[in-house]
Amino acid sequence: MTPVEDAMRTKITQALNPTNLEIYNDSSSHSHHKAMHGTVSKETHFRLVIASEAFHSKMQPARHRMVYALLKDELERAGGIHALQLKTRTPEEEERLMAQERAEKGQHIADVENK
Asked: What pTM was estimated for this model as a whole?
């Protein structure tokens, strides 16, 4: 882990008590971009997957605003987070998605076996 990732994990865990939290640091894939030249930070691009009951009854924009508010310092700091991709779900939405993926994977295996 890295300092920015650690800070994000701590803030999100404390505020949202997520049932699932995945943090992907994609910064190395973007270091060649013109906007990144001269930046000393190696923590600029992240993808987050968050499942939390705190998102219940909230639309995606409101969920994202919650996360942006938590990470305000990391987003505003010079050399801080430049890009943040969010997938925000309730635990129920997460379970439905995983069940759907398992069903699709099972169907794919059945299709392969029948060929």
From this structure: 0.78
